[in-house]
Each structure stands twice: as C-alpha cells, then as structure tokens.
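**Fold in tokens:**
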Amino acid sequence: MNNTLGKTGGEILRPSVPRATRVAINEKSSPEDVTRWLQEKGFSPRVIDLLDGQDGANLFSLSKLHLQQACGRDEGGYLYSQLLVQKKRSGFRTHTGDELKAILNHRRTHVELSNEAPADEPVFTINPIH
C-alpha cells in the first residue's frame, strides 16, 4: 500500500506504462529504420552499435544462435523474439521445403548439363499470410 500511495495527498501513483513502439521493421527496412527500432525497443547501446548499418533483410536472416553469440544470451534471445514478432507482422516468409527442393533440383540439373551455375533461377511468388 505504501508503494502505491505517494506523498501527494493520497493520490494513487500508477507505474509508468511503456508507450507502444511506433517504428516497425520489415525485410525492406533501411539501416536507419533498424537503428530507430532498436532504440525504441530499448536495446543497449552496445547492441545498437554492433548492428549499425544492418538493414531489415540482414537482420531477419540472423539466427537465434548468431544473435545470442553476438549480443549475449539474454539480449540476443530477446532480440530474436522481437524479430519473430516483426516477421509475423510484416508477413515475412522464408521458402518452404518444396520451394527449396525445386531450386536445388534446378541448379543440380543446370550444373550437370553445363558445369556452370544457372543464370535463371526459378521464381516463386510468396503471398503474405493474412
């Protein structure tokens, strides 16, 4: 009770509620957007400096293990979970297993025929999940 009542004549003091993050990132976010997002999320200056210059696509490609190794276990894990939220909100999808198999088969066939990497990769349209 003493923690909720201040010396303001019995007025109840409410803990400050963190404001909602206004900045969201996606795989097309610029390095400036990423830095702003990291700052608004409250990441340490060390992590912000470490990720300076990274765009959304690069950040989205980092694994949980890489983030934990670079940023530390706790902050790297928190960053990974926040990135999962941003990926979900932006509709980001990686290739499915079938799409990856088709790309691999295309490359394998091309290399077997010409002994060179293919110039024309198969294109898959990825529709965001709504």
Observations:
- The chain has a mean pLDDT of 79.
- Residues 31-95 form a domain with the DNA polymerase; domain 1 fold (CATH 1.10.150.50).
- The helical segments are 31-40, 45-50, 56-61, 64-71, 73-90, 97-114.
